[in-house]
Automatic annotation (TrEMBL):
Superkingdom of source: Bacteria
The protein, known as: Chromosome partition protein MukB
Organism: Klebsiella pneumoniae
Segments forming a coiled coil: 25-52, 116-150, 212-246
GO biological process terms, semicolon-separated: chromosome condensation; chromosome segregation
Length: 471
């Protein structure tokens, strides 16, 4: 174990030997901090460039201007203004020098000496002409001033006339435009057309007034109709809210019915295919008929009567399902499992009806097999009566020795009732007259015998128990 640890230590030392100079460096932590700061600055710069790269690209051409000190802006502005002023002065001086150069030929005075030494007469004439020219100039100046004053007056009159002309021309143009707008032509027939136009406008005005009255009446009718429609709409909204509440209530009742049906296992009876094609009235009629039949069937059961009474609430139709479920459970609890192999009461009733019809048919067949002729029955009954009479005679022989008190002996007398003897005579001698009773497939022999007894004794009103006894 120590060897393994030593081996691991040697391998660790071998890995540290190439970095021994770094471990010996005392400034390594400072360098790491410096590099970390530079890395943070670089990341910050990268984020800044990524965020403002487009703006920096636009500012790059004027970076030299942006590098200047903002405090020197006023000085630069003054220098720029001074440079512009110097440029303007230089341009003016250059223009003046160009003018002087162009007029240099006029500054030559080489002929001035000859003029001074010229003829004095010529100078006198020139002086006279100069005076004359000055006088003419003064007259012309006065005339010019008079003409200028007159011209200014004429100009004022012209301006006023021109303004009046422009105003009247503008008014005339407006009048022409109005005439064109209303379709009037200024000619000889304009007055006649104006009268016709006036009559037409009066007619249109009367038509418009009548139309306005009609529209006002229509508007009043529409407002009344709108009020009626608004009331109908409000009524429909109320009806819709009520129907919506009824639908919500019906849905809630249906959900409750579905839960009740699923909990009690009668969902198969509710989702019958033939019920899906019946209308609401047909389903309601079927439900009412079923309730009417069940009302008589549950008359002796207090619990089912209470459930039936609760289910008659028209606002809670789901309680009818509760009543049907209660009847269903009541019938399910009373199914004879030793006879019927099912848990469904409806199927049990159907099977019982099938079994009842089968047993009835079997009983009929057995009665037909066991049936005998009426004469044989009469003979059998007579033999039975004779046998019983013999037994009673033997009993009387034993009772002759019985005495008590003032009674010396006891004797039993046997008499056949007249109705029974008549029945026996008919069975033995007149059976052909009543053969329709015994040949009928709808009546068993016992029922035919009871019918015969009733036919022979119509005055006797006997019930089922009495008829059974006589059979």
């Amino acid at each position: 174990m120590q060897y393994e640890q030593a081996k691991e230590g040697v391998s660790a030392l071998n890995r540290l030997l190439p970095r021994l100079n770094l471990l010996a460096d005392d400034t390594l932590a400072d360098r790491v901090d410096e590099i970390q700061e530079r890395l943070d600055e670089a990341q910050e710069a990268a984020r800044f460039i990524q965020q403002y790269g487009n703006q920096l690209a636009k500012l790059e051409p004027i970076v030299s201007v942006l590098q200047s000190d903002p405090e020197q802006f006023e000085q630069l502005k003054e220098d720029y203004a001074y440079a512009q002023q110097t440029q303007r002065d230089a341009r003016q001086q250059a223009f003046a020098l160009a003018e002087v150069v162009q007029r240099r030929a006029h500054f030559s005075y080489s002929d001035s000496a000859e003029m001074l030494s010229g003829n004095s007469d010529l100078n006198e004439k020139l002086r006279q002409r100069l005076e004359q020219a000055e006088s003419e100039r003064s007259r012309a100046r006065d005339a010019m001033r008079a003409h200028a004053a007159q011209l200014s007056q004429y100009n004022q009159v012209l301006a006023s006339l021109k303004s009046s002309y422009d105003t009247k021309k503008e008014l005339l143009n407006d009048l022409y435009k109005e005439l064109q707008d209303i379709g009037v032509r200024a000619d000889a027939g304009a007055e006649e057309r104006a009268r016709a136009r006036r009559d037409e406008l009066h007619m249109q005005l009367s038509n418009n007034r009548s139309r306005r009255n009609q529209l006002e009446k229509a508007l009043t009718f529409c407002e009344a109709e709108m009020d009626n429609l608004t009331r109908k709409l409000r009524k429909l909204e109320r009806d819709y809210c009520e129907m919506r509440e009824q639908v919500v209530t019906a849905k809630a009742g249906w959900c409750a019915v579905m839960r009740l049906v699923k909990d009690n296992g009668v969902e198969r009876r509710l989702h019958r295919r033939e019920l899906a094609y019946l209308s609401a009235d047909e389903l309601r009629s079927m439900s009412d008929k079923a309730l009417g039949a069940l009302r008589l069937a549950v008359a002796d059961n207090e619990h089912l009567r209470d459930v039936l009474r609760i289910s008659e609430d028209p606002k809670r139709p789901e309680r009818k399902i509760q009543f049907f479920v209660a009847v269903y459970q009541h019938l399910r609890e009373r199914i004879r499992q030793d006879i019927i192999r099912t848990d469904d009461p409806v199927e049990a009733i159907e099977q019982m009806e099938i079994e009842l019809s089968r047993l009835t048919e079997e009983l009929t067949n057995r009665e037909q097999k066991l049936a005998i002729s009426s004469r044989s029955v009469a003979n059998i009954i007579r033999k039975t009566i004779q046998r019983e009479q013999n037994r009673i005679r033997m009993l009387n022989q034993g009772l002759q020795s019985v005495s008590f008190g003032q009674v010396n002996s006891v004797r039993l007398n046997v008499n056949v009732r007249e109705t029974h003897s008549m029945l026996l005579d008919v069975l033995s001698e007149q059976h052909e007259q009543h053969q329709d009773l015994f040949n009928s497939n709808r009546l068993t022999f016992s029922e035919a015998l009871a019918k015969l007894y009733q036919r022979l004794n119509p005055q006797i009103d006997m019930g089922a128990a009495h008829a059974a006894n006589h059979r």
